[in-house]
Specification:
signal, alpha+beta, two-stranded antiparallel sheet, 268 residues, Extensin-like_C, Extensin family protein, nine-stranded mixed sheet, 11 strands
């Protein structure tokens, strides 16, 4: 027992000597893997995304439609059938005037062009030729023959007394399949129906007299003669386009027998 008390006293004294004045500070524990890291500065929470209104649907594009096609032009009328009795009366009258002509087979060139009973003429009377030979309807040539006998010859004796006797009428166009004024489009010409003839000049014993523009103020007899033809031709033909009436008729006279409502005539 005394030994045990002595050992305890020695141990107590030893502990009292070794203990420092300040007790040791425990070291911080190393961070554990599962510990939450130190929080940084507070991060503001994300604003909730605003709900956007649904985009308005794009207006439907107007469907592109092709321009309506132009309606096709009406088909040209067929070649007009001529009355046989009227035709025979016409040719009989031509013979009585001393005209030289021959009848031809029916012409049908399509597109409305043609003559049911065409006539090819070389002389308007025993005294006056038509050059070159012209093909047209009998009615067209009969009116020209009458106008030559009743108007051109007596007017020339007064207006062109120094030119001598009328020998020939020069024609620039009879039957020809084409549009008016030779255009690509438009109405068919009366030439294409055999209803028209163009006069370019008159041939006298002393030479030719061309169809030309006659100013209204021109004082000479030649101009008076041309103006007389321009006006009086409308007594025989339903259409008269005198020289200078438009750009297409500057050097010839157009004559035709086109039928119009009420007997209307177009002369200029």
């Amino acid at each position: 027992m005394p030994r045990l008390f002595l050992l305890a006293a020695v141990l107590a004294a030893t502990t009292a000597i070794a203990a420092p004045d300040n007790p040791p500070v425990p070291l911080p524990k190393p961070p554990q893997a599962d510990r939450t890291p130190a929080a940084g500065p507070p991060v503001p929470a994300e604003k909730p995304k605003e709900k956007q209104a649904p985009a308005a649907p794009e207006p439907e594009k107007e469907k592109e439609t092709a321009a309506p096609a132009e309606p096709p032009p009406p088909p040209p009328p067929p070649v007009e059938t001529e009355d046989r009795a009227a035709f025979e009366a016409c040719t009989a009258e031509l013979k009585s005037l001393g005209a030289a002509f021959r009848t031809l087979p029916r012409i049908d060139d399509g597109n409305g062009c043609g003559i049911d009973k065409p006539v090819a003429m070389t002389r308007l009377s025993a005294e006056v030729a038509i050059e070159p030979e012209v093909t047209a309807r009998c009615e067209t040539l009969l009116q020209l023959a009458h106008m030559t006998r009743d108007l051109i010859e007596p007017a020339a004796r007064l207006g062109l007394p120094d030119m001598g006797r009328l020998k020939a009428v020069h024609q620039a166009s009879g039957y020809v399949c084409r549009k008016r004024n030779g255009a690509e489009t438009g109405k068919i010409s009366e030439h294409a129906r055999g209803n028209a003839v163009d006069i370019s000049a008159l041939e006298f014993e002393k030479g030719p007299v061309p169809m030309k523009i006659a100013a209204s103020e021109a004082p000479d007899l030649a101009a008076a003669f041309q103006r007389t033809l321009n006006a009086a031709a409308c007594l025989y033909f339903t259409t008269v386009l005198s020289p200078g009436s438009d750009d297409a008729h500057r050097d010839h006279m157009h004559l035709d027998v086109m039928k119009r409502t009420g007997g209307y005539r177009y002369c200029r």
